[in-house]
Amino acid sequence: MVRSGGPETMIVTNFILDGNAIRLLPLFTSLGNFKDGGRLNVGANQVGGAYSGNFTVTVNYL
Q: For 3, which of 8, 19, 38, 46 could close a Cys bridge (C-beta 3.0–4.6 Å)?
């Protein structure tokens, strides 16, 4: 994660996915919902501000 307007960063680790790793979708639909989370590592003297970042999620559809 990078602070808006500055070079400061924070790292997200320990990503998790709720529920089972293998999901079944109902017939005749291509929609599925999932929740994810992780640990945001904030430094002792972390500069305040708005931090943002992008995360890639890969889904293997069989």
A: 8
